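Can't attach files on this board, so I'm pasting raw text. These are the components:
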Amino acid sequence: MTEPRTIVAKIWDDHVVTQDPGAPAVLAVDLHLVHEVTSPQAFSGLRARGLKVRHPGQTVATADHSIPTTPRSLPILDAMAAAQITQLETNCAEFGIPLHGIGSPSQGIVHVIGPQLGLTQPGMTIVCGDSHTSTHGAFGALAFGIGTSEVEMVLATQTLLQRDPKTYEVRVDGRLAPGVSSKDIILALIARIGVGGGTGHVFEYRGEAIRALTMEQRMTICNMSIEGGARAGLIAPDDTTFEYVHGREHAPSGADWDAAVARWRSLPTDDGASFDKTITIDANTLEPMITYGTNPGMGIPITARVPSPDDETDASAKRALEHALAYMDLQPGQAIIGQKVDVVFVGSCTNGRISDLRLAAAALEGRHVAAGVRLMVTPGSDEVKREAEREGLADIFKAAGADWRESGCSMCIAMNGDQLTPGQYAVSTSNRNFEGRQGKGGRTFLASPLTAAASAISGVVTDPRTLPGIEDLAAVGGR
Amino acid sequence: MAEPIRMFTSKVVPLDAENVDTDQVVPARYLKVTDKAGLAEALFRDWRFNEDGTLKDPPFVLDQPGMAGRQILLVGDNFGAGSSREHAPWALTSWGVRAILSTGFADIFQNNSLKNGLLPIVVSPDVHQRLWSLIEADPDAQLTIDLAEEGVLLPDGSTIDFTIDPFAKHMLLAGTDELGYLLAKETELEAWEAAHPPRVDTLAGAR
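---
Top answer:
Structure tokens for the assembled complex are below.
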């Protein structure tokens, strides 16, 4: 009788190529995603050593971080960004890597196109020079971000050196109320454990509330695992997963599909397997969440008040809170609802998929963005953009006064010119509220697409549960 | 390939902040480079410089008198959270930092640092407090980092022990890199690949 194993252990065991005593494991990588920002120095390294890419067919590239989201017919005005994108094209051509770059119908944010193309599959190891690679864990894959040195290693060997991770069970029981979303689950988790709470661990999200989520909602949760310090977070695959993968361009088909599903069904954590840490969250009591500070752990239920440094007993936590509130120009004890908003951003690898846009559009239909507020909607991929246009969502956004953009990382990382100006407040569906993350001096409130849309309409931070017909709205989305 | 590291002595740059994220270490707008040059200028950019490129007044700790050339950074809890950008350790090392002392580091930052000859040294909260007291009492105190012995030698002659991943330590002491190690596993890798066909073919349809 074999020892009960977690899904993490099963995937791990399946990919260890070899391991010397005392050394990390040589871990095989099934899929390597490449983008323009963290790869140029890795390709330079290969050239310097005279190395090739070992498996171009297990590698795929796109341009997403530094590209403009203005119409594609316009030139890239930022010379450094243009050079970086040209460098990616040169590197992919030279090393034989398929590139879904600007102009390709498959272009998009790297963590949106992997699942969309059917490349992201259960049981795989997936890496990318990007910390939000944890997104792909939604499919029951072990997926994590790596640095550029590791990008070079994976390009050259299709492996990397890894220590066996610890496991952290995140059990979410109960059911979400209308207007409360998967974004609120992950913000609530990080608010509880802090931005370093998951360091050294892989989260496994389990429980009734997780099982009830669609794939895109699961991706939102897994995406932000890194914001809780965990390099990876995953959800065991089930019928919801298989249904999403089935029929996609790179998904197995025919007899291969049946064999794959049979293999995938053996992945879930065995009964009796143990975790290094466990936390339980009650979905029934969750409210829409919003951040007030300068890291994703500084989050509160939207009806709560901004915490006071006077209530902090730990000296360093007190000072960190004082610093954050000074940067955000918020008062201790003030309500967050009603706080003025200048910009609302809907998009990113966290919440830039079609179901996110459907939710935001449903809230905005027949309404208008408040005077003085800029609503920017950036689809997560070119395909998401086309789909949103087909479904009429783009028309709803435009009629509401929103700025409908091309796909890319855009104002989530703000390195392409889409950014806040100093002092501006944004409600953002992205993943990081660090100082200056969305533009130097910009102030970010992280929240769900519904909260973002509700805030865009009223011009102040708004509880999405006050939207008319919230029960029906919250049911919009699908997949 | 990094220079071998064994032992070095330096005064300390105290950076009194917790949860310093990699967007602070190198703001995203400096990630458009295609090489590793010039990143010292981007290091802690928005904490150091005004909009017009002049230094903040009072200057950020890195720019205070006597700080240039120091190789050890003492920081608050959980340093390096956020992005996987290796530009963060590249910027730190190009400014001259060779070791960072904290109670904890974010995983990816820690991995990236070790691959660039930058030592992320984890100390207990008590020792961390002791180091802060030491630097407050004597801002010019010198510490000696001894990687081989896994110890930080204090001015009073006492030593703080630390542990570092034994494999990473071996690589740092030898000045070799992980890619060389992996390339030497070709036989094992070929055997594994023969038994494990690729799960996907990203080139399918493109050929």
